[in-house]
Amino acid sequence: MDNEIYSHERRHSHKVPVLGVEIAPFRIPFHRRLETFAILQWTLTFLIGGFGLTFFSLYLLFTSYYWVSFLAYTWIIIDRWTPSQGGRRFSWSRRWKIWEHMRNFFPVELHKTADLDPNQNYIIAFHPHGILAVGAFIHFGTEATGFSKLFPGIKPSLLILRGWFFFPFLRDYVMIAGLCDSSKNSVDYLLSKNGVGNAACLVIGGARETLDMEPGKHRVLLNRRKGFIKKAMEHGASLVPVYSFGESDIYDSTCNVPGSKMRKLQEFLMKFTGFSLPIFHGRGIFNYTMGIIPYRRHINTVVGKPIPVGKNPNPTRTEVEDVHTIYVDALKALFDEHKTKYGISEDISLEII
After folding, report:
1. pTM over 0.85
2. Given 17, 23, 62, 331, which residue has the most CB atoms within 10 angstroms?
3. Which residues make beta-bridge pairs with 84?
């Protein structure tokens, strides 16, 4: 791919400081404008799309367009089981040009270390979450990084919080990309009732992990995350560790110490809403200093070798612990094998919390 696409955002022109804010120059290649628009629409969708569309639909109830909201909420009720039964993907939407622009913004790349047999099912475990889970969406919710070419015969389904599928309009937008809810029933359906060649893609750390995230730190929430291990054992699905180098560096964020007042507030709100509220900032549309758009920093996602898991419909706690240990060791090995390729010092280790 053209090296110009992968250049840093400041390469093309001199930065213009105004009152401490680095203003983006007016003359910027058009493809970069498209890339900024692409990431802006996803950022707004991820951060405020659900609640924004909910408030908008409630507003419509008090207008002559009340019937639009009525139909939207009726559809949510009628279609309530679809997110946990394989979703409603459309291949054409996964190939939209906007996803390629979004990929090129950082850029994001997907690296394969082993083949995946299309006659088996998998749980792909993605680390770390980051603020937007950009890598997970681009790789498993679109074809921008060529997942289907790298792993022919494998159909990835990115699993996200069930709450997303209660937002009117937005639920159907994310479902066409192949996103499903992350409930146990959803995982069971993908691994047992949908044939073979399925990959249930889980961001293991989830919303909780974002509260411990810091740029430059390689920290994943995994010690108590064992539900995905149990599901893999129940269905005999192979586990595939994935580490996304750079995922935690696209925003500047603050990790509040556990027990602090701010951390307690964040955990309370997460318990109440299901969504975490990390403190972070990136760049803006027309500046490089502050805003909600992530920085242009390279993300390299490495897909590890599958870990065979024997089928065990009723695994004991000890058996789950044993497989969990094997998985943690494999993830650490994957990190250590590839870290120096992506600018991480040899003496840096992956921190498991």
Report:
1. yes
2. 331
3. none
**With the C-alpha atoms ordered 351, 227, 254, 264, is the resulting torsion angle positive or negative?**
negative
Q: Which of 27, 87, 2, 43 is nearest to 293 (CA)?
A: 43
Pairwise CA distance, residues 149 & 151, whole Å: 6
pLDDT tens, residue order, the chain (353 aa) = 444 434 444 444 455 665 567 877 778 889 999 999 999 999 999 888 999 999 999 999 999 999 999 999 999 999 999 999 999 999 999 999 999 999 999 999 999 999 999 999 999 999 999 888 999 999 999 999 999 999 999 999 999 999 899 999 999 999 999 999 999 999 999 999 888 999 999 999 987 887 777 777 899 999 999 999 999 999 999 999 999 999 988 988 776 667 777 777 767 767 766 666 677 778 888 887 788 999 999 999 999 999 999 999 999 999 999 999 999 999 999 999 999 999 899 989 999 98
Cβ 353 vs Cβ 222: under 8 Å: yes
Tokens 């009117």 identify what position?
Answer: 168
Tokens of 107: 């850029």
Closest CA to 58 of 74, 70, 44, 76: 70
* 3-state secondary structure at position 46: helix
User: Under 8 Å CB-to-CB from 206, ≥6 apart: which residues?
Assistant: 129, 161, 221
Interior angle at CA 222, CA 216 and CA 224, nearest 5: 145
**In the numeric block, which tokens belong to residue 162?**
């069930």
Cis peptide before 107 (omega within 30 of 0): yes
Which residues are CB-neighbours of 322 under 8 A, at least 6 positions away?
A: none
Which helix (H) or strand (E) element contains residue 236?
none
- Tokens 């920093």 sit at which residue? 297
Provide the token pair at 44: 């707004």
In angstroms, what is the C-alpha Rg of the chain? 21
